[in-house]
Write a structure and sequence with these properties.
The complex is a heterodimer of chains A (549) and B (305). Chain A is α/β, with parallel strands linked by helices. Chain A is built from 21 helices and 20 strands. Chain B has 305 residues and is an all-alpha fold. Chain B has a domain of 158 residues: MetI-like (MetI-like fold). Classes of the chains: A alpha/beta (549), B mainly alpha (305).
């Protein structure tokens, strides 16, 4: 077979204009890209790099405001940009298929998943009803869903995120497409589910002999599955090559910067905090949720937190790691008394915080501050940054002028300009907003800072910046931190000690190195084994630069 | 689904019971009903006679159960004003009101669903602007004036339609338009907003990525989700049209139940008022129940709720 026959998708000099008034004239500019049969090409870049636009263009799903102005997108030799929507839709779901990022909302809630898969056969083939059904059941089995017959009749809301993503993959695979486009398909999933889906992709490459275009921002995922890598920045391809070339010997400064930001699995030993005073002590904490019995439904109980014991010393960063549903968020809510505990105690600085009467809680609130996950939702869009920063201290009786002075000081610490005080949240990027949230949390001089998935929503390079900033501030101010995350790599990077939670219980605890290099518990081992990119040793970018390569 | 329907039925029954207590209690909220019936100039003896005659001297729970028992059998007592059985008066007029209500809600849905869908497909297009214009006019024009305009045009000038009465189906055309148009704006806006929301959702993108024809994406995947709140609103509006069509009925001299309600209020005809309130509320409860069941059929997530 010649090379051209093997090429499924070939994008040539593609330029897509952005509507006027954007931050740049083109969404993608002069893009060249090939995807061959039996190959996984990863497109990597941060948000806004144009990687999703590229996949939408190929599928003919671009929003109306965006128009390709130049170039061609050759799919099996046909320029799809020249096709009418009707012609293009004959290819969609048939010869080319797409898998999306958000499995929770990608399926229509009103129809059974069986119906939603069968629809593809009904559209693109002349199978009879019973043939369609048989093929659908077989597909469900192929994407490793248990009890295909039962799943067939299920509605999306009855399935987990990982199961739903398998349904979306089944829909994409239905007609055995030549090209499979996956847009961040594992980003919203837990690490163990991600590992399963990634291995499914590797299988599909072989069994379906499709070309796979895999859009991601995560270099560890790239290391796990990519044959070739395309790195995009602001609509331009800055580097492309084989996975080995790009991952181990990156040439472009932007690629180097991205790879340098990948959280390392090991780090230097932190200074010991053994002898420090205990700031927070949690004893036998229990929290169970009950749904009361109704006329038609029996009562249910969920043990969200069971027998949790923690000791946090001054200056310590304690990482709490767990997948969704592990109880880590409930634990945090119990610690700061947003949720009442059933049993056990939380001690802060020698006082039993969990027994402080509600009326006195106000004075205690400033001892613990929290930084939330979503920097877009946690700042009031209608108030200036200055107003939002001083609100805390003013609330505790600090004169506004003094508080403003402090706000300026903190903005300096989180490396923001002073004029940010008079601006509104929408004028800042996600990373900047998260830094503002950090400043806000520090305004009342808390003893304990809780970061609840605080970097999960950020791009890798921004994530690294925020993590470094937190580490510096911690050093400078002697803060104690609780770092809640689902991301083992991030936890390894910032924590002194780590506890791993599963089903409401702490299944493993120890210092960070110990937990990662020598896990004892089966669940921890499973989590660690599921981490993508294990075989890849992140290259020393500084060394590469010194070598002048 | 069966369990869902049973739950909703039990809830509907409880609401109905509550409503019956309230509508029964109305008689007493206005003061001693015997005094009200006897008139301002009545003597104490006359009031006592009336009290005994109508059974107001019995304990209130007994009166309530007695009233409820009869009401369930369709007997709402004798009208204090007209001196004839309330149920005869109501049921002879209910047909007119129900016909008008059903025609009007159908008319409203026939206008608002297609217009809402079309304007959602192309927001800010000419069609969308026309739809918004129609909606704004519908909200702004008082029903009685719109009704009079129609009478002037179609009955007086053109002579096509009868100006009043309820003898033929032609008599219902103009009232249907007036009452239906009144309900159209809200339904249209809700359809449009729902469709715009749904069309930008991830599962519509999935449907497009499957290569489905645009019509199938629109009607199978989008409309079903977008129409759910519209169903609930239509049920409420339907209930409103039955009870609140007084203005329209008056303008077109359609002697329906709405008209009767207005008369019984102005004449302090308590037993008729009681009966009408109960019947209108029952309609509300039935429509809400039907809307809940329809929505649960549309969206399986609602079935477990």
């Amino acid at each position: 077979m010649s090379d051209t026959q093997d090429t499924v998708l070939s994008i040539r000099n593609l330029t897509i204009d952005l509507p006027e008034g954007g931050d740049r004239p083109h969404a993608v500019e002069n893009l060249n890209l090939d995807v061959k049969r039996n190959e996984i090409v990863c497109i990597v870049g941060e948000s806004g790099s144009g990687k999703s636009i590229t996949s939408f263009t190929t599928m003919g799903l671009l929003p109306r405001v965006l128009k390709p102005s130049q170039g061609e997108v050759l799919f099996e030799g046909t320029d799809v940009l020249k096709l009418s929507d009707k012609q293009h839709s004959k290819l969609r779901g048939n010869r080319m298929a797409m898998i999306f990022q958000e499995p929770m909302s990608a399926l229509n809630p009103c129809y059974t998943v069986g119906d939603q898969i069968e629809e593809v056969f009904a559209t693109h083939s002349s199978m009879t009803k019973s043939e369609r059904r048989a093929r659908t059941i077989k597909l469900l089995d192929e994407v490793h869903l248990p009890e295909p017959e039962r799943i067939y009749h299920s509605f999306p809301h009855q399935l987990s995120g990982g199961q739903r993503q398998r349904i979306v993959i089944a829909i994409a695979l239905a007609m055995d497409p030549a090209l499979l486009i996956a847009d961040e398909p594992t980003t919203a999933l837990d690490v163990t589910t991600q590992a399963q889906i990634l291995s499914l992709f590797k299988q599909l490459k072989e069994t379906h002999s499709a070309g796979i275009m895999f859009v991601t921002h995560d270099f560890d995922v790239v290391a796990e599955i990519a044959d070739r890598v395309v790195v995009m920045q602001k609509g331009l391809v800055v580097e492309q090559g084989t996975a080995d070339e790009v991952l181990n010997r990156p040439k472009h400064p932007y690629t180097r910067q991205l790879i340098d930001a990948v959280p390392r699995r090991t780090r230097e030993a932190p200074p010991s905090i053994e002898g420090n005073e205990v700031v927070m002590k949690v004893v036998a904490l229990e929290k169970t949720f009950h749904t009361s019995r109704t006329l038609f439904a029996p009562a249910r109980t969920v043990k969200a937190v069971q027998d949790v014991n923690l000791t946090i010393r001054k200056g310590e960063t304690l990482g709490i790691v767990g997948e969704s549903g592990s109880g880590k968020s409930t634990l945090v809510r119990c610690l700061i008394r947003l949720t009442d505990i059933d049993d056990g105690a939380v001690w802060i600085g020698g006082k039993e915080f969990s027994r402080v009467p509600r009326g006195q809680l106000h004075d205690w609130r400033k001892k613990i501050q929290i930084i939330f996950q979503d920097p877009y939702g946690s700042l009031n869009p209608r108030r200036t940054i200055g107003d939002q920063l001083v609100e805390g201290p003013v609330n505790f009786g600090v004169p506004r002028k003094v508080a403003m002075q402090k706000a300026r000081e903190l903005l300096r610490i989180v490396r923001m300009e002073q004029d940010a005080l008079h601006r509104y949240p929408n004028q800042f990027s996600g990373g900047q907003r998260q830094r503002i949230c950090i400043a806000r949390a520090l305004m009342v001089e808390p003893e304990i800072l809780i970061a609840d998935e605080s970097v999960s929503a950020l791009d890798v390079s921004v994530q690294k910046e925020v993590l470094n900033l937190l580490a510096e501030i911690k050093e400078e101010m002697g803060l104690t931190m609780l770092f809640i995350t689902h991301d083992l790599r991030v936890a390894a990077q910032v924590s002194d000690n780590i506890v791993v939670m599963n089903k409401g219980q702490i299944v493993e605890r120890g210092n960070a190195d110990q937990v990662f290099s020598n896990p004892q518990n089966d669940y921890t081992k499973k989590l660690l084994a599921a981490m993508p990119g294990q075989g890849w040793e992140v290259p020393d970018i500084a060394a590469l630069e010194r070598a002048g390569a | 689904m069966v369990r869902f329907i049973l739950t909703k039925l039990v809830m509907a029954a409880m609401v109905a019971l509550t409503v019956s207590i309230i509508s029964f209690g109305l008689v007493y909220m206005a003061g001693d009903p015997a005094i009200a019936l006897a008139g301002e100039t009545a003597t104490d003896e006359e009031i006592a006679v009336i009290r005994e005659q109508y059974g107001f001297d019995r304990p209130i729970p007994v009166q309530y159960l007695d009233w409820l028992g009869s009401a369930v059998r369709g007997d709402f007592g004798i009208s204090y004003y007209y001196n004839m059985p309330v149920s005869d008066m109501i049921f002879s007029r209910l047909g007119t009101t129900v016909t008008l209500g059903l025609c009007a809600i159908s008319f409203a849905l026939l206008i608002s669903l297609p217009m809402g869908v079309l304007s959602a497909i192309k927001p800010n297009s000419l069609l969308d602007r026309v739809a918004v214009f129609i909606a704004v006019v519908g909200e702004a024009i008082p029903s009685f004036w719109f009704g009079l305009l129609l009478i002037v045009l179609f009955s007086i000038n053109l002579g096509w339609l009868p100006a009043s009465g309820s003898d033929s189906w032609q008599s219902f055309i103009m009232p249907t338009i007036v009452l239906g148009y009144y309900a159209t704006p809200a339904l249209m806006r809700l359809t449009r907003a729902g469709m715009i929301d749904v069309l930008s959702s991830d599962y519509i993108r999935t449907a497009k990525a499957k290569g489905l024809r645009p019509r199938k994406v629109l009607f199978k995947h989008a409309l079903r989700n977008a129409v759910i709140p519209v169903v609930s609103l239509a049920a409420v509006q339907m209930g409103f049209m039955l009870g609140g069509s007084i203005v329209t009925e008056t303008v077109f001299a359609l002697h329906g139940a709405g008209f009767l309600a207005w008369q019984s209020i102005s004449r302090n005809d308590l037993s008729t008022m009681q009966a009408l309130i109960l019947i209108f509320s029952m309609f509300y409860i039935v429509f809400t129940f039907l809307a809940d069941v329809l929505n649960a059929w549309l969206d399986p997530r609602l079935r477990s709720g």
